[in-house]
Specification:
38% strand, six-stranded mixed β-sheet, globular, five-stranded mixed β-sheet, alpha+beta, CheW-like_dom_sf, 11 strands, single chain, OB fold (Dihydrolipoamide Acetyltransferase, E2P), 18% helix, CheW, 155 residues
Length: 155
């Protein structure tokens, strides 16, 4: 598992520094939906750490976790969107937001699919369809951190 994470990190860093024609994004499963995260907006991918629940917060706000010495708010984005809670398992991870977004936050993902090339996908409405007919929803994390509802985790 550690080797997989190191390889994924190396590929993500190579994609960030390579300004070629392909647009690389990180594919993740949140709830029952597949999402694409822009690599410039995604931070680290880490196993789910112990979570401290914060009272009087929204059901989608899972609590706080210590990730490499930083307190990070953890969000179940599926519940934020009004869906069922994300089921966790051995493949579940936290994807933190990039530091430049100025928000110590991480999204709970049921699974990380790895790098996807959005340029190779077909646009279908507001989604992208890959060659295996999987539909992906682009998720703009920079826009998410400006959403008023996202910014108010308390009741």
């Amino acid at each position: 598992m550690r080797q997989y994470q190191v390889q994924l990190l190396e590929r993500m860093q190579a994609a960030r520094t390579n300004s070629g024609a392909r647009v690389n994004q990180l594919g993740v499963l949140i709830g029952a939906e597949r999402f694409l995260l822009d690599l410039t907006q995604a931070g680290e991918i880490v196993p789910i750490p112990p979570v401290t629940v914060v009272p009087l917060t929204q059901p989608w706000y899972l609590g706080l976790a210590n990730i490499r010495g930083n307190l990070v708010g953890l969000i179940d984005f599926a519940r934020f969107q009004g869906g069922a809670e994300t089921v966790t398992g051995p493949d579940s991870r936290i994807v933190t937001l990039a530091t430049h977004l100025g928000f110590n936050c991480g999204l709970l993902v049921a699974r990380v699919y790895g790098l996807r090339h959005a340029g190779d996908m077909e646009v279908v409405g507001d989604r992208l369809r890959d060659t295996d007919a999987n539909e992906w929803i682009p998720l703009d994390l920079a826009a998410l951190v400006t959403d008023a509802r996202f910014l108010h985790v308390g009741f």
